[in-house]
Amino acid sequence: MTVLQVEVVAAEGIAWQGEALSVIARTTEGDIGILPNHEPLLASLTPCAAEVLTADGNREVVVVDGGFISVSDNRVSLLAQFARVAAEIDLKAAEHELAAAEKRLNAGEIDDETRHHFLRAQAQVKAARMAQGH
């Protein structure tokens, strides 16, 4: 059985790596699923909760705050400034961060940094809820 070699790399180091059967991530064009023997690909990511179905049948959810996905020769790399495994995210803290970002947006702060902060917080909440089975 062919598997994917997956690594999720953030500015501070490798957030997750291992063998996988599939990867689902959100690009600027929409969600994309990667299976073994996928065509080579380089695409921009949006902040999302990427899902990795590991070779042993478990699901890992990893938050990325944008960046890039690269696919070639059954190697998948997600490269982002920020990445964190969902199980490491404190749901209450992520919900608080999302509420603060939403408040700033609603107050008229619509600059790129505020929008990016909102999208990253939204992805963290989604990932933490997925990790808890919600």
Outline:
The chain is α+β, with helices and mostly antiparallel strands. Helices cover 27% and strands 47% of the residues.
Task: Describe the protein.
The protein has 134 residues and is an alpha+beta fold. The protein has two domains: 4-86, ATP Synthase, domain 1 (Sandwich); 89-131, no CATH class. Helices cover 27% and strands 47% of the residues. The protein is built from two helices and seven strands. It has helices spanning 91-106, 112-131, and strands at residues 4-10, 13-27, 30-34, 41-54, 59-72, 75-79, 83-85. Strands 1-2-4-5-6 form a five-stranded mixed beta barrel. Helix 1 runs antiparallel to helix 2. The protein starts with a strand and ends with a helix.
Number of strands: 7
What's the Cα radius of gyration?
15 Å
The CATH topology of the largest domain corresponds to ATP Synthase, domain 1
Order of helices and strands: EEEEEEEHH
Strand order of the largest sheet: 1-2-4-5-6
Helix content: 25-40%
Number of domains: 2
CATH class call of the largest domain: Mainly Beta
The quaternary structure here is single chain
Main pleated sheet: 5 strands, mixed, barrel
Q: Pairing-aware structural class of the strands and helices?
A: alpha+beta
User: How much of the sequence is in beta strands?
Assistant: over 45%
Number of helices: 2
Q: What is the overall shape?
A: globular
**How much is the average pLDDT?**
93
CATH architecture of the largest domain: Sandwich
Give the N-to-C terminal Cα separation. 31 Å
* CATH-level-4 superfamily name of the largest domain: F0F1 ATP synthase delta/epsilon subunit, N-terminal
Uncertain spans, ≥5 residues at pLDDT below 50? Answer: none
